[in-house]
Specification:
Elements: E1 12-16, H1 19-22, H2 35-42, H3 55-69, E2 73-77, H4 80-83, H5 93-108, E3 112-118, H6 124-128, H7 136-152, E4 158-163, H8 165-170, H9 172-175, H10 184-209, E5 214-218, E6 220-221, E7 224-226, H11 231-254, H12 259-267, H13 278-284, E8 290-294, E9 298-301, E10 327-328, E11 332-335, E12 341-342, E13 348-349, H14 351-365, E14 369-373, H15 391-409, E15 414-417, E16 439-441, E17 453-455, H16 457-467
Parallel strand pairs: 1-2, 1-15, 2-3, 3-4, 4-5, 6-8, 7-9, 8-14, 14-15
Antiparallel strand pairs: 9-11, 10-11, 12-13, 16-17
Helix pairs in contact: 3-5, 7-10, 10-13, 14-15, 15-16
The structure holds 6-O-phosphono-beta-D-glucopyranose.
The site of 6-O-phosphono-beta-D-glucopyranose has 14 residues, from loops.
Length: about 475
């Protein structure tokens, strides 16, 4: 690289996971089903999460491996149905115990826990009451997060509210959040408002109950470039940015809805159902930092009103495929980027997007930032030598981390890097076929194997890098 960017002392180096994707043990320890468990049995694109990486039974070994790697942080999520399994709101002591043990083990190895309150595992009992669609969820969520802060807040100081609320709304139809909605395009803004109120409740309760506690949102971030210097392409890129990210980030940071979204609602005849007192609640929810999930970038171009909406566009080879360039007539259309390579799943490999995102968020909000997801999903196997040689992941992470370093030198305040994922785990859409881990889990979607943990080459590379605080590339 020619020169080494300097990472600040105390930078949080670790990795990331989410309960439903890693734990398994879905019917153990008093946990009741989450909606995602049911989806994972019946519905593509989910894969069965009843075993996943079986972290529920391997947590001690997993923390041991994190310590061997030299982690100073670990970002994971709490499963709501493990903590409050039933509609009577009673706390499940076994659920609390499981996370207490995990947190204590992390701390015993000097690993700072970074805890997400909600990462897609809505309890079935909450969903039966209407889930995010019904305002009753606000009080239920408030109760749940208060239980978490009271149980773990003496040791956990970094908290995250709702994982990728923006992506849940933008891709809600694909994720099944539109269940029970008559008109998703309109209803999603009402649901989004309810989620904003839940986020606000979490922020307020964290500050009230956790001494020295810090909390932030976790937007899923896909930086967007204009396709060309055509002025309307720039506006299209700004529209895409607003409609997929900025509307949410503005709300979290400024605690009010932006002029852009208010105008959008007006133009599309949308009523987000903002009730008296709601904005006052949101107004009190002052976040401490932004946690950012970033894997890829996108390109946007002008898309006149007259064009028709095309849901599944052609992929790079001209076949109908997973690689989509949707059009949103009057707003923007996505387009391919000839300057970047793509992953096995057609996600753009774009390390510079990492620096761009950090600068963008810093310039707009002036809040500390932490990377909570970033990584390479790939097909992988154990080689004849019993090892997993993931040179592509090493190259991916090296380039991305380098850009984090450059962003720090650009003046951005970045406090940690926690890529996705520590062990292989279930991808949201592609199960174990799409592996992200620094540690291989010996199992497949077709057959449960011995679930052995095999550190990949990237584990050893990352270990050297983080032990040198980003000097040994
Ligand atoms: C993020 C989610 O959007 O992307 C994770 O927070 C997810 O839950 C990750 O696993 C990668 O996406 P995918 O679809 O490849 O699993």
């Amino acid at each position: 690289y020619g020169r080494d960017p300097i990472f600040p002392e105390g930078f949080l180096w670790g990795a990331s996971s989410a309960a439903w994707q890693v734990e398994g043990g879905v019917a153990e320890g008093g946990r009741t089903p989450a909606i995602i468990d049911l989806n994972s049995k019946t519905k593509k694109p989910y894969a069965d999460n009843s075993i996943a990486a079986d972290h529920y039974h391997h947590w001690k070994e997993d923390v041991q491996l994190m310590a061997e790697c030299g982690f100073t942080s670990y970002r994971f999520s709490l499963a709501w149905p493990r903590i409050i399994p039933t509609s009577d709101g009673k706390i499940n002591p076994e659920g609390i115990q499981f996370y207490n043990d995990l947190i204590d083990e992390l701390l015993a190895h000097n690993i700072t826990p970074i805890v997400t309150l909600y990462h897609y595992d809505m309890p079935v009992w909450v969903d039966e009451l209407g889930g995010w669609r019904d305002r009753r969820v606000i009080e239920l969520f408030d109760h749940y997060v208060r239980v978490c802060f009271e149980a773990f807040g003496d040791r956990v100081k970094y908290w995250l509210s709702i994982n990728e609320q923006n992506m849940q709304i933008v891709y809600g139809k694909w994720l099944g959040l539109d269940k029970g909605c008559a008109d998703w395009e309109k209803d999603k803004w009402r649901i989004n408002h309810i989620m904003n109120l839940c986020h606000a409740k979490a922020v307020i309760a964290c500050h009230e109950l956790v001494e020295g506690g810090k909390i932030g949102p976790v937007p899923g971030y896909v930086p967007i470039y204009p396709e060309s210097c055509k002025p309307l392409d720039q506006i299209a890129a700004m529209n895409a940015e607003e409609l997929t990210e900025k509307i949410w980030n503005d709300l979290y940071a400024f605690r009010e809805y932006s002029g852009f979204v208010k105008q959008y609602w007006k133009l599309h005849d949308i009523d987000p159902d903002i009730r008296p007192g709601d904005m006052e609640l949101i107004g009190q929810a002052k976040i401490d930092y932004f946690a950012l999930n970033c894997y890829r970038s996108n390109v946007a171009k002008d898309c006149p009103k007259e064009e028709s909406y095309l849901e599944l566009a052609l992929n790079k080879e001209g076949k109908k495929g997973q690689f989509v360039y949707p059009k949103f007539p009057g707003e923007y259309a996505l387009a391919p980027n000839p300057y970047v390579e793509t992953t096995d799943w057609d996600w753009e490999i774009d390390p510079v997007a990492m620096r761009y995102m950090l600068r963008y968020v810093w310039d707009h909000y002036r809040l500390p930032m932490m990377i909570t997801e970033n990584g390479l999903g790939a097909h992988e196997q154990v080689g004849p030598d019993g090892q997993v040689h993931d040179a592509n992941r090493i190259a991916f992470l090296r380039d991305q981390i380098y850009q984090v370093g450059l962003a720090i030198e650009d003046g951005c305040e970045v406090i940690g890097y926690n890529p996705w994922s520590f062990t292989d785990l279930l991808s949201t859409g592609n199960g174990m076929a799409k592996r992200y881990g620094l540690v291989y889990i010996n199992t497949t979607d077709e057959e449960t194997l011995d679930l052995r943990r095999i550190p990949k080459d990237s584990f050893y590379w990352y270990s050297r890098l983080i032990r040198s605080n980003g000097r040994d590339w």
